[in-house]
Amino acid sequence: MNDPVLDVLLRSPFFEPFALDDLNYLARHARAETYRQDDLLLTEGDPAHVLFLLLSGAVRLSFQAQVAGDGQEPAVAEIPVRDVTDAGYPVGWSVLVAPYRYNASAIALRQTRVLAFDKDVLERRSLASPEFGVRLMERILWMVGRRLRETRIRLVARRYQEEVVAIRALLDQNAERLRTDSPLHKIPYYLEHRLTLSDAFDTLRLMRTSGEERERDLASLCLDILSDLRTEMEVFRRLQGIYELVSHAPAGLTPEQVNDLTGKHFSELFARTRYRIEGAGNLPSGSGHIFIMNHVCGHREYILPNGFLLLFDTNFVSTMIVRERYGAAPIRVVRESFSNEFGHKSFYDHGNYILVRGDRAAEPAERSRQRQDFYDRAGAALRSGNNIILCPEGTCGRTEQSPKPFKTGAFQLAAQTRPEPLIVPIAVANFDKKLSRATLVAVVHESFRVSDRISLPADEPAFRALAGSLRDQYRSWVQEAMLLSAEGAEPGAKPPEAAKDW
Prior knowledge:
With about 500 residues, this protein is an alpha/beta fold. It has two domains: about 5-230, Sandwich (Jelly Rolls); about 250-485, Glycerol-3-phosphate (1)-acyltransferase, CATH 3.40.1130. Helices cover about 45% and strands about 15% of the residues. It has helices at about 5-10, 20-30, 120-130, 130-160, 165-175, 185-190, 195-210, 215-225, 225-245, 255-270, 310-325, 340-350, 365-385, 410-415, 450-455, 460-485, and strands at about 30-35, 40, 50-55, 60-65, 75-85, 90, 105-110, 110-120, 275-280, 290-295, 330-335, 355, 390, 425-430, 440-445. The strands form three sheets. The chain has a seven-stranded mixed sheet, sandwiched between helices. A four-stranded antiparallel sheet has the order 1-8-3-6. Strands 2-7-4-5 form a four-stranded antiparallel sheet, with no helix packed on it. Helix 1 (about 5-10) crosses helix 2 (about 20-30), helix 7 (about 195-210) packs across helix 8 and helix 10 packs across helix 11. The protein starts with a helix and ends in a 16-residue tail after the last helix.
């Protein structure tokens, strides 16, 4: 009859070189333990009495370090070391190394099962079988060497934000020790293009479980280094899914239903990121408002294969702020597609948007007609109780350069609409960054009516002056949002370390 504990030990990379008699001994003296999410397996500095072997789940290793605090006394911060997710890997090997105190804490990231080996069990076997003791210390040295190599590679990757370069260097250093037909040789080529990233991760996961010892070791290390890239791959997949969902929406869905469906999927995406929303108390009651925001371009890594880029900033404000507060997706103001923008057109033609033309070459009379058509359509939507999202810049830029000059359309729309809607300013930051490396920030500021700022009816210079003064205000707001991003995610949002757990 098969012994399940012995089967685990036979598959464990750590115990691979041990004799069968030794593994049978360990199997007889092991005990299975289960930990819930956030349970501590061991605490830094405590006497080391138990060696754990991961069966399932995930364990985060971390240590405490002093950092500069706000007051005179230094603060203590928890510094993550690594996440152990591979079945068969040990946690707590300080039990075998003087001074026999745990040099890190270990916490369960989700429900986790482990095998526990008491220190005296390992010591008794080492005394009875010196060969066992020698192998045990050799494997500890193997773990230490692996950890040092891993730390060096991760430091290089994080310092220069070049995980792919680090992986290529790591595999190049080990190329001569790998079989010539090892699938790991393909990894650097898979990582060169977003469309083959999934092939890289599929190959690494396969090698981590079924490769030779060195292949398993390298694959595990590569997966750990590539955790941010894995997040980016999942973001890209979700964006592809959202685009295909909208561009091939069933004919029976109304534009409003398409917008609502889009909002649900973007909410699921953003819920897995690090974000911070401030000033939600400034959101007015009721609906029928104009939400204005600075417009931040998306990161080029999220451009879909057809050349279309789904922008995060407007979708974040739409789903995580407006839809969340008022229960319905707002109507976004979007420019009409150019004749060669098939991806842009296929997406926006299915939803409920207010499309505006960006034809600067049109005759003045035609441009005036287009503006009035926009005011009429947007005004009707506001009077019907819809919220509208509008970016006064009419273009996007980087967070550090935001905002660009404001146009006056949003303010003239408010001035022409009765009852006069509120203008709700929202400043955003970091939506041009990779989601795995940034905290997204949106700050809702106090709403106002255009008639509070200028006398109505107003002439064009008055609207331009209002747009200019508000842009100046936005510059400081964006700077404040960038400072908030450095403080991390808000309570209730996904913390930085959990954002990678897709």
